[in-house]
Write a structure and sequence with these properties.
Blueprint lengths: L1 H18 L6 E4 L4 E3 L9 E7 L4 H17 L4 E7 L6 H11 L5 E3 L2 H12 L8 E5 L5 E6 L4 H12 L1
Parallel strand pairs: 3-4, 4-5
Antiparallel strand pairs: 1-2, 1-5, 3-6, 6-7
Length: about 160
């Protein structure tokens, strides 16, 4: 009887988690159009969100590696996108940094308070700064959150381990 109850409870939790709305927080893309993170989910691929700022020296150093990761994973098991906190005021400088990285590193942009709200909503932790990495499974559930840079090989290993 206990095992049946455990299965029912676990099934209910899985249904609840997979049915959970990812949220409709709207940011902008770098063409000036509204966009949401949810648009990047296809139900099959993981999503890595790299939160960054053009003013962050660590971001400037690490973003080329994340852009390369995005290129390598383009048609594989996960998608990498950026989420800039530079907002309206820093749009031009953020855009210039993205231009240096090439077209494969898609990125959205929002005001810092909007990004902080997004982080809090999904991680239940306050936004601590850039860079920050969020990894969502194909169902849109946050499974990892790290403030500070994360080596790309660690990201790949983390997802590969959980994809099998």
């Amino acid at each position: 009887m206990r095992s049946i109850l455990a299965v029912v409870v676990c099934t209910a939790l899985l249904v609840f988690c997979s049915a959970r709305s990812f949220g409709q927080q709207t940011f902008g893309d770098f063409e000036g159009q509204p966009a949401t993170i949810e648009e990047f989910f296809d139900g099959e691929r993981w999503l890595v969100v790299v939160i960054w700022s053009f003013m962050c020296p660590i971001c400037q150093k690490e973003l080329p590696a994340y852009a390369d990761l995005a290129r390598r994973q383009k048609s594989r098991s996960f998608t990498v996108i950026g989420l800039s906190i530079d907002g309206h005021v820093g749009f031009g400088d953020a855009w210039a940094l993205l231009e240096e990285l090439g077209n494969d590193f898609e990125s959205l942009i929002g005001e810092v308070d909007e990004v902080a709200e997004f982080v809090l909503l999904h991680s239940r932790q306050p936004f601590q700064g850039t860079p920050s990495i969020m990894i969502f499974n194909p169902s849109g559930i946050l499974v990892a959150f790290q403030a500070g840079p994360v080596p790309v090989d660690s990201i790949e290993a983390f997802i590969a381990q959980r994809s099998n």
